[in-house]
Every structure is written in structure tokens, then in C-alpha cells.
User: Fold these one by one.
Assistant:
Number 1:
Amino acid sequence: MSETAPLPLPVARSVASLRQTVKDWRAAGLRIGFVPTMGALHAGHLSLVEMARARADRVVVSIFVNPTQFGPSEDFGKYPRQEAADAARLAAFGVDVLFAPTVAEMYPAGASTTVTVGLVTDRLEGEFRPTHFAGVATVVAKLLNQVRPDVAVFGEKDYQQLLVVRRLVRDLDIDTDIVPGPTVREADGLAMSSRNAYLSSEDRAIAASLPSVLNFAATQLRTGADAAPLIEAGKAELLKAGFGAVQYLDLADAETLAPLAKADRPARLLVAALVGRTRLIDNIAV
Ligand code: AMP
């Protein structure tokens, strides 16, 4: 007999059972919202759930730690998994179904199709995590086909991912509105992330300099300042604060992510840096 307590909301483990539920909703004329996640849920995820609820009659949240978006030396094995606690939070936020498939369900033997998105994946995360976006695009294409939501909410926290998903949906004619959700932050400005759980208290204190550096540089950039010296100073500040490495701190066109010398059009300042063994990313509108 299983000692696992039943989860406090309906859970679909298979694509077939998810599809049955969604089919019934659609037959009843209901609008469907969707929030894909990798679990270890925090207030940032839950803000996306609220956005989906405000735009749909029924909300599906997926929890799937997608192996294909992790590089060989990345944290797939130790990524936090806490399904029972996540399910309790989703139930409290009025989520109608949790879709929590196994890896075998998502990638049955013989699976050999990969979705790759060009251009917007060339730089930044694409440079430092070369296989990441093919994994993201493939799993998001699959999830959108499985749920077939009217609306799906993605966080601006993963800004390049948001652009990749928008491109994918346009290029593959997927009939889902992609809605961006603002980044939810801790009191000191650190963007909430499931990976913040990896930080020691010392590293957590260092991490707070990431949003400060972004905010300071963005304020200067908004006055028309040149990006290059601000980026150099920002990198130096992060290293001085205790980051071990800054992979990028970059001003980019908000739509294409092409590099910019000045914020002379809608722009985004994006950063990836390592504190201890934890890799943190963040970004801000300029
Ligand atoms: P993840 O579970 O990290 O794959 O993230 C699932 C979704 O939540 C993605 O669309 C993320 O961009 C979004 N997300 C992650 N952190 C935050 C945050 N601090 N604020 C808002 N959305 C977030």
C-alpha cells in the first residue's frame, strides 16, 4: 500500500488523461490558461498562475524538470523536487489540474524530433548553455500541443526564453497567446528563483548585488549614457561584491536581443553570473 498522501488537486500523469480533461473543458466552451514550470514553486510562479486565472476559466500548471534543457555538467540531478508542497500551493491558488508527466511519458523511446529556434538564441544564454534553448523549445512545443491552451504565461525573469517561446509560437502557428509575467523579487531585490535554494547565507548576501547593479546601470542607460563603460563598471562591482564570474552583462534590443551601444530604442539589460557554484540570471527593462 502506498504511504503517499493523495494530492489536493487533480493530477494528470499521462498526456492521454490531460487531453481528456482539456477536451471536456473545450467542449463546454471554457477558456484554458496554462503555466509551465519545473516546480519548487515560489511567489513568482504563483503570480503567473494568478495571471492565467484572470485570463481563463480553467488553469493547467505543469511541473516537469525537463532533462533536455540541462547541459551535461548542469544541475538536472540536484534540481529541487517537492511535488506535494507544490501541489498544496497550486490547490490554494485555484489551479484546476496539475500536469506532472514522467520523463518516459514526455520522451518515449525513439523520440527524435528537436525544435530549434534561430537568431534570438545566438547570444547570451545561447552562448553559455549551447543546448539549452533546443531543449526549452522542444518541451514548450510539446506542452503547448498537449494542453492546447488559449493563453500561456511565461516570466520575464527568463527574458530570452520568453522571446524564444514567442518566436516558436509564431513560426509554428501555435494558436496560443503568450503573455509575459513581471519578475517577482525578494525584499532586497533578488529575483525569486528555484535555484536560490542552492545559496549559502553568505552567497545569498552576495546575490543581492545583482539587482542593485542592474538597477544602477539601467538608470544611467535611461539617460542616454554609453553602455560599454557602465557594463565594465557593473562587472567589476559584481566581482567586488563576491561573484566568482560574470558570464555576461549586456545591453540588447528588447525584441531581437542584438547588442546595443546605447539604449536608443526599447532595450533590456541582461546578466548571468556565478556565486559559489550557483548560476544566477536576471534582467531589467531599459
Ligand atoms: P521555472 O520553474 O524556473 O522553469 O519557471 C517557470 C516559469 O516561471 C517561467 O516562465 C519563468 O520565467 C517564471 N519565473 C521564474 N521565476 C520568476 C519570478 N521571480 N517572477 C516571475 N516569474 C518567474
Number 2:
Amino acid sequence: MKKGLLIILSGPSGVGKGTIRRYIMDNFDIQLSYSISMTTRPRREKEVEGVDYYFVSNEEFDRNIKENNFLEWEEFVGNRYGTPKDKVEELRNQGKNVFLEIEVNGATEVMNKVKDNRVISFFLMPPNIQALEQRIRRRKTESEAVIQARLNKGKSEMTKANQYDHVILNDDVARASREIVDLINRKLKS
Ligand code: 5GP
């Protein structure tokens, strides 16, 4: 059996990575397994444990680092986020395409670590900074300081877009999703 693809979707906070992922899973006939990350960030009201993230304490996150359980992990604006290693491998070995939704440093680490040529990476770009800010504010989950920190982080992340296989403009969810799915399908056939 062919090993499943590792699909990386990155991009600044508020660009709409989660919306694109859900749109793709709901509207296209493509098999994708979403890799659920572990985080020390407090759960937002609409988020579900074990669906959006595994929400853990700092101590539990430390233990997972010590036990070498992460493919990668990063600190992002005051919280830590990590991709469980064994789960990703297990799914890919079953031929499943694994979808990672992660920030830029973690994505770079994965691209450097995973050398099996069954990886495709996307950077999702907002049409402009205002769109990014609006989305973060609309969530109404972050303090002003965190909003500013996420925006600043996003601006520096955007300078690294050229490290990815494809830069996708999120001007329209359906269009951007279609572009991503077409590129994944092309890669699957190669
Ligand atoms: P949020 O707090 O908005 O859910 O996530 C903050 C940032 O961390 C987003 O860019 C998100 O994609 C990223 N992220 C989520 N999970 C992981 C992970 O496992 N590893 C890394 N490196 N980034 C992650």
C-alpha cells in the first residue's frame, strides 16, 4: 500500500485555515484524516476536546516532550502546540492522507524532518491585513494584547510563504478549497 500523503496547511492566525479544512472535508470527495494537535491554550467556548485539540496542562505537555511524542511542537503567542508523532505515522502507514494545520515554525520543522517525498505544503494568504484583523476580532476570544501579538506574528509568518510548495490566496473559501484539492489530487496521482 502506498503511504498516505502528509498535507501541511499553514498561514497566519485568522486567515481561515480551519474554515478551509472543514469546507474541503464537507464538500469534496477526498479522503483526509485531520491530525488533532495537543495544546496548552485554554479551550474556546465552541471548541471540543479531542475534536479541535487535546487541551492539556503545561505538565502534561512537558511529559510529552520528554517522551519524544511530538513530530514537532512550538510556542505560539504564549501557548504551546504540538503534533502527535505516532498517530501521524500510523495513519499514513494505513494509506490515509494526514492533514496538519500548523503555524510556520512547526511546518518548517516537518518539511525538514519528513523526507519521504509524500508531503505537500500550502501557505494560506489573506487578501490583506484588514481581513486578518477582522477575522481575529470577530472570534471575540482574545484580549487586545493577544490580538496585536497574533497580527504581528502573522506579518512575520507571511514573509516565509515562499518556503511552501504552494501559496494559496484565501479570497474565496470555495475557490481556495478547490485549488488546494486539485493540487492534492495531482500530487496523489504522481
Ligand atoms: P489557535 O490558538 O488559533 O488555535 O492556533 C494558533 C496557531 O497554532 C495557528 O496558526 C495554528 O494553526 C497553530 N497550531 C495548531 N496546532 C499546532 C501544532 O500542533 N503545531 C504547531 N506548530 N502549530 C499548531
